[in-house]
Amino acid sequence: MSLQSLTACTACGACTEACPEDILEIAVDGVAIKPGAGECTFCGECAAACPEDVFASDRRMAHVMQISGDCLAQAGIACMTCRDVCPETAISMRPRVGGPFLPELDAASCTGCAACSSACPADAIHAIERGPENV
Ligand code: SF4
Ligand code: SF4
Ligand code: SF4
Prior knowledge:
Elements: H1 14-18, E1 24-27, E2 30-33, H2 45-49, E3 63-67, H3 81-85, E4 91-94, E5 102-105, H4 115-119, E6 125-129
Antiparallel strand pairs: 1-2, 3-6, 4-5
């Protein structure tokens, strides 16, 4: 679920208790996703539990993921974990001469669920703001 209006959040914590994945927390500005906590399945329980108009009903986050230079494959160590866990097949592996396949992330297909970032053994995948080219 993406956020419709964070300013509507009263920090009541109903969503954090409702989330079956336990990935939500109340931060300074209101509800937030815990970094590295796990994957959003877009089940909608947070929106159903929230008494305010905080959550949108879509199945995409306001962010997308980006793979950094900390990726093991870029350092010559074969790894396809992110590709394997992505429920949207947004990550593909590009062959190259002289080294392991490199992961490529299609931001337009990425929902921002964080399955990849929480599974990456090198902590190489992080959220960035979704640009107009990726909506
Ligand atoms: S939609 Fe995502 S954040 Fe909301 S309750 Fe389900 S798993 Fe948790
Ligand atoms: S899971 Fe992490 S280390 Fe492995 S290929 Fe993906 S970004 Fe690279
Ligand atoms: S955040 Fe989710 S949809 Fe996006 S690349 Fe990672 S696993 Fe795939």
